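Person: Show me a sequence?

Helper:
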Amino acid sequence: METKANLIDGEWVAGGDSIRNDNPSNLNDPVGTYALATPEQVREATQAARRALSSWSVTTTQVRSDLLIRTAMELLDRKAELGELVSREAGKTRAEGVGEVVRAAQIFQFFSGETVRYGGENLPSVRPGIGVQTSREPVGVVSVITPWNFPIAIAAWKLAPALAFGNTVVFKPSEETPGIAWELLNIMQRHGLPAGVVNLVNGRGAVIGKAMTEGVDAITFTGSVRVGREIAGHAIASMTRVQLEMGGKNPLVILDDAQLDVAVECAVNGAYFSAGQRCTASSRLIVTDKIHDRFVDALVTRMRSLKVGPSLADGIDIGPVINQRQLDAIQRYIQVGKDEGAELIAGGELVDAPTPGFFMQPALMAGSNALRINREEVFGPFASVIRVADYDEAFAVANDTDFGLSSGICTTSHQFATHFRMNVKSGLTMVNLPTAGLDYHVPFGGRKGSSYGPREQGKAAVEFYTVGKTAYVSYV
């Protein structure tokens, strides 16, 4: 099998080693073999990005816009093919894989417009004979580090604004999903990506992670809390701009007056779709006393209707988790929950599928908010039900977490919905909707341990990828 190379300064180059990328839904289906960059190659990529910055940063906005829109159009034209690749790499169902490619195209489309739309202001000074102009300039060389759970969508929402606003990039995708990143860079090269403007370096964080933080002007990272904090330490020491998205322990509050069918679908979608491997997943289901038993019974019935299996098979609702390490971690959390007194209500069993892979039935446990299963991110098809007396207790439990990414409430009460929306300590909040599910044109990000730095996506992205300048001009 041909080893796919890294892209450094416009050339495809071999790495110091390679990794085979296997389909987590069928271990007999290798997706490809990909070169692993060395720390020295990351430094070469950073130097190439630095050299390219001087020309790319002053390229006309139309040139940058054209690159992004042409990339978007090819993604849409090839959505079925590329969506299947995403499904084979990340274990998503076919519909999820295609949907993610479409979302990436929409992000590139959006920022192709922002390229020619962002700018500054002409303002009168408070002093006579003086004018004031504000403008935005590229932040510089950006280190982009993306996870495996949304391998092209998250890459798009970091790469597109970086390029739109005149920055250059060193891009490290997850070693679990290098294939779609390689295809994306191939597409961008065909549509005029200049040498050095985006450099692709595949590799394990333990090997090249530190090099990804050196010699750059900004770092944008989506991944674990542990790694995010390490990156923040490196960034602060060198006064490097940093943007971190690090997960959540997201509450979905279900009140007595909720429409039961709506609440169940919100919980199933938020907790279990995409095999629960979403930082916005509903991992804590906080349910008031009078609806609790009916909700749990209905949720278990709905869970039993979900079909777990190979991601590209027809009729599959939930594919595999990403690898054996993640599957083992989820199983350990189930045991930890039992050891601490939680009840396993349903699911959690490994699934014997037609192909070898990392399959498990979605799990539902019950226990207090103090348990580890309700304090730490499990990142899989796993949720816990927490019984509370009323809205006040539900609201307090929802905020009782070190995370603050997404939250949701199911209720027909305008009073409770409004109070929750305005006061819950999360960056995202949903009313009668799953906690997962985002639009691409509005800000994304959380609070507390979930996020650090400026927001991602939409018009908010300009805050991270540019630096403001204020100029004073004498008219005398």
